[in-house]
Specification:
Elements: H1 4-20, H2 26-36, H3 42-47, H4 59-62, H5 69-78, H6 89-100, E1 114-118, E2 128-131, H7 132-137, E3 141-143, E4 152-154, H8 175-190
Parallel strand pairs: 1-4
Antiparallel strand pairs: 1-2, 3-4
Helix pairs in contact: 1-2, 1-6, 2-5
Length: 192
């Protein structure tokens, strides 16, 4: 595997150049990504990972609790002569999120309009990323009725009722169970 932060930094530089006609240096790209992930510098980010390159392609998904807009803004303020200082924070964060998002397993595009793909065996750790265009245009993806739209599976991982392995059989209630459930829903709905 490769250094995800280094690759994201290069991608971030490309985004700013192609989308905003702004050239940022490698050190500023690394600093912005580190700041976004809640660190004061790339060195601090790496120190927290035993000075090893980060190889987790789902770093944004797995470290989302560390994301810090105040730290990103502070990091940008410390930069000397950076075009990032003149850009709106939302443009910078969108670009960083795109740079840190894995490429789509179908088309390879990196976009913030994509979703992690999970397997039936482990709904806590994504196995791939799929962009919204491929989700719509490919027949191989679906969501479990009970997990919700945030958790994407391969269609083959769901049963005919649209249930993942964890929720398999929840859609088939006995008449008594269905009656109890409908009564509960009616009761809750009427009280609000």
């Amino acid at each position: 595997m490769s250094d995800i932060i280094k690759n994201a930094s290069k991608h971030l530089q490309e985004i700013f150049k192609s989308n905003h006609n702004v050239i940022i240096g490698s050190s500023h790209a690394h600093a912005a990504i580190s700041g976004y992930l809640g660190y004061k510098s790339k060195k601090a980010l790496l120190a927290d990972h035993y000075d090893e390159p980060i190889e987790d392609e789902f770093v944004l998904f797995n470290y989302s609790s560390l994301v810090s807009l105040p730290q990103l803004e502070e990091t940008i303020l410390r930069m000397k002569d950076s075009p990032l200082k003149k850009m709106p924070t939302h443009q910078i964060t969108n670009a960083i999120e795109e740079a840190l998002t894995p490429g789509c397993e179908c088309c390879g595009h990196k976009t913030i309009r994509s979703q992690p793909l999970f397997s039936n065996d482990d709904i806590d750790n994504p196995i791939a990323q799929v962009c919204s265009s491929c989700i719509r245009n490919e027949e191989g993806y679906a969501t479990c009725h009970y997990c919700g739209d945030e958790i994407l599976y391969r269609t083959d991982d769901l049963n005919s009722a649209g249930e993942c392995s964890e929720h398999r059989g929840e859609g088939s209630y006995s008449d008594e169970e269905r009656e109890d459930w409908e009564s509960y829903v009616e009761n809750v709905t009427n009280n609000f």
